[in-house]
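Q: what does this look like with 1HE bound?
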Amino acid sequence: MQSKPKDLSVSYAGASQQIAVVRLTRGAKRNALSDGLVAELRDAFQNLPDTVRAAVLDGEGEHFCAGLDLSELKERDAGQGLHHSRSWHVALDAIQYGPVPVVAALHGAVVGGGLELAASAHIRVADATTFYALPEGSRGIFVGGGGSVRIPKLIGVARMTDMMLTGRVYNAEDGERLGFAQYGVPAGSAFDKAMELAERIAGNAPLTNYALMHALPRIAEQPADHGYLTEALISAIAQAAPEAKARVRDFLAGKAGTKVKKG
Ligand code: 1HE
């Protein structure tokens, strides 16, 4: 029996294969996220090998991701709809709260569930062809992949409301200005820039990366008084690691090569 071709590829790159490249390979359907592809994403990020220190997420073809596979949009009762949305939450949480930082390389359409997927990464690099939209509003549905939690954190509630009420589309330049992407690059170069950033991230102390992924977003949600205590705990744990001590020693001995330079 022939098995169904996968809609996702996972390969390894960089020094010691430390970078996982996770690619949506459903270009003929603009990388639309079928239930099967959402499960493949979940499995890929839940099962990254221990050797991996950073990941790059991208999509084949002219578009990063066209969102929910509309051909699977079936009549669901409320309970089934709830579980469908929750399955996206599990998959996208596996990206945001997985073992390693994820850099999304964006180009073309980053729309609907594709924008929800991009928002679950830690860094977004967008090339000049990128555009962002939330067509859910015009399709009579609502976001269901964590977008109402993550997207306002990037651009604010008012802008997300406008996008969904009016179908507004933001181009790459506006998207960078508003906070969808932290890096804007020329057309065709998002993947290379994402790999460059992933290499740098892979060189960080693992506990620092862990703190940034798992502690920072939670501290930012805490009342200041709680946040300060959590920060103190995490910083005490991070600085106690032998690797942290070795890095500071190297800097003080002029050996680190990590002096901060003007950008
Ligand atoms: C699809 C999908 C899809 C393309 N589901 N099949 N998302 C949307 O509402 C976006 C819908 N898609 C588009 O607006 C456009 O396809 C694009 C702007 C992304 C790309 O345009 P283009 O001209 O390059 O491609 P195309 O000709 O529109 O599509 C090529 C094929 O991909 C075509 O199939 P074919 O068999 O006729 O070749 C399309 O049907 C198919 N395709 N997008 C299914 N989305 C957790 S809740 C999240 C809720 C949402 O994400 S709602 C938003 C859904």
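The two ends are 56 Å apart (CA to CA). DSSP finds eleven helices and nine strands in the chain.
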